[in-house]
Design brief:
This protein has eleven helices and ten strands. α4 (about 65-85) runs antiparallel to α5 (about 90-130). It starts with 14 loop residues before the first helix and ends in an 11-residue tail after the last strand. Helices cover about 45% and strands about 15% of the residues. The protein has helices spanning about 15-20, 25-40, 55-60, 65-85, 90-130, 185-205, 205-225, 285, 310, 325-330, 340-355; strands at about 145-150, 160-165, 175-180, 235-240, 250-255, 260-265, 270, 295, 300-305, 360-370. The chain folds into two domains: about 15-125, no CATH class; about 135-370, Phosphatase 2c, domain 1.
C-alpha cells in the first residue's frame, strides 16, 4: 500500500518553495535591470536610487548571507554608476540606498526564523499524519492495496479523513472514513477511530462487534471533547470491509452512512448496495448499528472506497466530478486495473477536474485479493 505524502504531483506548490534554491537570481536580475535602465535613459532620468530595491527584494527571497551580499553590492554600485553617468540627485538618494540595505538584513533574519518555525510545525503535522495514516507494507494481510490522501490544505498535510488496512486472524480488514468537521478536533476524532479499529478488528471475529466498538469509542471521544470545552459533537461516515479467510470469494461490509464502494473487474464496474446505516456516533438516533452484509466478490475484482472529497469535487463552473464515468473509462481500457493504478488515475482525474483547488480532504483506498497464479503441472 502506498500511503503517499500529501504534496502530490499536480497539487499547486508555492513557487517560492519550488524554486527557493534559485531565489538569488531575482535580486541579481533587479540589479542588472537598474544598471541597464540607468545606462539607457537620458541624463534627466535619475534611476540610480532604484538600487534600494535590490536588498529589499533579497530580504524577501534570500537568506541573511545573500541579503548582506546584495546590500553591499547595491551600496557599492551607487557611487560607481554615479561616477559613470553622473545622474545622482544628491546624498539623499545614497542615504536611501544605505537605509534600505540596513533594514533588509534584519528583515531577512526575521523571515528566515519564521520560515523555520513553519517547517517545524509542518514536521509535527507530518508526524501526526504518519500516526493516523500509517504506511502499510505491500501484500499486508494477504491483499493488494493502495491509498492516496490529498489534503485540501497542502500545509496541514492531514485532516479528518482516515483509512487503514489490517492483517488479522480472520483475514484482511480495511476501513475508510471521514470525520465531520475540520481542524484539530476532527484529526483527534479520526486518530481515536483508527486506533480503535486497529485493536477491535484484530481481536474481534464478528464485524458487528467491531462496529459497536467504533460507536462506543467516538461516543467517549465526544464526551472528552465536551469536557474540554468543545461544543460540537463529532460523527463520522465510514466503510469497513472484511475479506474472510474462510471465504475467499466473499466480503463483509459495514457501511456507516458512507458512499458505497465501487467494484472493478473483468465484467466492468458495479457499486455495492447502499448500507443504509447511520454514521458512527449517531447509532442511538438511528435505532442501532448498521448491519453486516456478506457479498460476493469475483476473482481479481478491486474494491474502491473514496471519501466525499472525490464525489463532491467541483470544477470552476460548479460541476461535480463524475467518479462513475472515470471508473468506466478505466474498466474499458487495456489490461487489468490494479489498486495502485486505480488510485493514481482517480486522484489525478480529481486534481485535473478541480485544477488543483481542493475544497475538502480527499482519501482513496483500493483493495483486492491477489489473483491466483496458474502453475503449470510438472511432467
Amino acid at each position: 500500500m502506498r500511503a503517499r505524502s500529501v504534496e502530490e504531483p499536480g497539487q499547486r506548490t508555492p513557487i517560492l518553495i519550488r524554486y527557493g534554491h534559485r531565489s538569488w537570481l531575482v535580486p541579481l536580475a533587479v540589479l542588472g535591470l537598474v544598471v541597464g535602465v540607468d545606462a539607457a535613459t537620458p541624463m534627466t532620468f535619475a534611476s540610480v536610487s532604484w538600487l534600494v530595491m535590490v536588498p529589499v527584494v533579497a530580504a524577501g527571497l534570500c537568506g541573511p548571507a545573500a541579503t548582506v551580499l546584495f546590500s553591499l553590492l547595491a551600496i557599492a554600485a551607487y557611487p560607481a554608476l554615479d561616477s559613470i553617468w553622473g545622474k545622482s540627485q544628491g546624498t539623499e538618494d545614497f542615504l536611501l540606498v544605505i537605509a534600505g540595505a540596513a533594514l533588509s538584513v534584519p528583515i531577512s533574519i526575521f523571515r528566515v526564523r519564521a520560515a523555520g518555525y513553519v517547517r517545524h510545525l509542518q514536521g509535527a503535522a507530518e508526524t501526526t499524519r504518519q500516526v493516523v495514516l500509517r504506511p502499510v507494507p505491500p501484500g499486508w494481510g494477504g491483499v493488494d492495496s493502495a491509498a492516496r490522501y490529498l489534503a485540501a490544505d497542502v500545509e496541514a498535510r492531514v485532516g479528518g479523513d482516515f483509512y487503514d488496512v489490517l492483517a488479522t486472524p480472520f483475514g484482511a480488514r480495511v476501513i475508510l472514513g471521514d470525520v465531520q468537521g475540520k481542524g484539530l478536533p476532527a484529526v483527534s476524532a479520526a486518530a481515536a477511530l483508527v486506533g480503535c479499529f486497529r485493536e477491535a478488528a484484530f481481536h474481534e471475529g464478528d464485524l458487528a462487534t467491531v462496529a459497536g466498538w467504533l460507536e462506543e469509542r467516538l461516543h467517549r471521544q465526544n464526551l472528552l471533547a465536551e469536557r474540554l470545552g468543545e461544543g460540537e459533537e463529532r460523527f463520522a461516515t465510514a466503510v469497513v470491509v472484511g475479506f474472510p479467510a474462510d471465504a475467499p470469494g466473499e466480503v463483509e461490509v459495514v457501511n456507516f452512512g458512507h458512499d458505497s464502494p465501487h467494484v472493478l473487474g473483468s465484467e466492468g464496474v458495479r457499486q455495492l448496495p447502499p448500507g443504509g446505516g447511520a454514521p458512527i456516533g449517531l447509532a442511538q438516533l438511528a435505532g442501532g448499528l448498521p448491519p453486516v452484509r456478506r457479498l460476493r466478490l469475483g476473482p481479481g475484482e478491486t474494491v474502491l472506497i473514496v471519501s466525499d472529497g472525490v464525489t463532491e469535487a467541483r470544477d470552476r463552473t460548479g460541476a461535480f466530478f463524475s467518479l462513475r464515468a472515470q471508473l468506466d473509462r478505466l474498466a474499458d481500457g487495456p489490461g487489468t486495473v490494479d489498486p495502485g493504478r486505480l488510485v493514481d488515475e482517480v486522484a489525478a482525474a480529481v486534481l485535473r477536474h478541480t485544477e488543483g483547488r481542493l475544497t475538502d480532504d480527499t482519501a482513496l483506498l483500493a483493495v483486492r485479493t491477489p489473483p491466483v497464479e496458474q502453475v503449470a503441472p510438472v511432467r
